Amino acid sequence: MSTIDATWLDGSQTQSGLTDACATAAGVTQISLIAKATDGFLVVQGSDAGRETFDDADVSAIFVTFADTVAQYPLADTSTLRTAVLSALAGQWTASATMGASPFDETVEEPARLIFHVQIPGWGFEPARIKFKSEVPAGEFCGLAWLMLNGATCEPYSFEFFASCAQAGEYDYSLFIKASQDAGNQSTRVIIDPKIKVIP
C-alpha cells in the first residue's frame, strides 16, 4: 500500500526548486484573477501580449479594477460577473482566449511571468502557494515568490513564478489556499488541481 507524501501536502513548505532563480527572462506577463460568485468560482486570465510590458502600476491598476468590479456585483452569478470583469478590464490587458477543463488551467506559449491573485474575503494563499504533482523538466518553473508591488508585499493574496517554456508538456499542479470563516476563528486548506500546458 502506497503512503501519502506528507511533505508534499504541507502547505507551509515550498516545493524544491521552485524558488530557484530563473535563467530565462519572461517575454510576457500572464495574470489570473480569482473571485467567488454565487454559483462558483470566477477565474479570468489576461496578459500584456501585444502591449507594453506590465509594470507595477499596470498590475496594481488591474487588481483595483478587479476588486472594484467584484464589489459592485456581490450577488452576481459567474456568467454575469465574468462579463462585468472582462468589460471593465478590456482596456488594461489582453484577455486570454484559451479555455481548459478547469477555469484555473494555464497555457504558456513563450517564457512567461505568471501572477495569481485571489480576491475572496478570508482567503489567501498558503506559503507553499503552488506545487507540481507531475514531473517537470529541471528549470522549467522557477522564481516562486510573493508578488511585490511598489515596494510592498502582496502576501498572502498574490504571488508570481516563471515558466521558461523550454519543453512542450502538460503539468498537473495544485494551488494551496487557506480559507477562513467565523471571523478568522476557523480555517481550512483548499487545494485546487488544474494544469499548465506548455507550447514552446
Q: Mind explaining what this structure looks like?
A:
It is a single chain. With 200 residues, this protein is an alpha+beta fold. Helices cover 16% and strands 40% of the residues. It contains three helices and 13 strands. It has a six-stranded mixed beta sheet with strand order 3-2-1-5-10-7. Strands 4, 6, 11, 12 and 13 form a five-stranded mixed beta sheet that branches. α2 packs antiparallel against α3. The model has no long low-confidence stretch (mean pLDDT 93).
Order of helices and strands: HEEHHEEEEEEEEEEE
Amino- and carboxy-terminal Cα gap? 38 Å
Can you count the helices? 3
Q: Estimate the strand proportion.
A: 35-45%
Short description:
This protein is α+β, with helices and mostly antiparallel strands and 200 residues long.
Write the layout of secondary structure elements.
Elements: H1 6-9, E1 28-37, E2 40-47, H2 56-72, H3 78-89, E3 94-95, E4 106-108, E5 112-118, E6 123-132, E7 141-146, E8 148-149, E9 152-153, E10 158-163, E11 169-181, E12 186-192, E13 195-198
Parallel strand pairs: 1-5, 4-13
Antiparallel strand pairs: 1-2, 2-3, 5-10, 6-11, 7-10, 8-9, 11-12, 11-13
Helix pairs in contact: 2-3
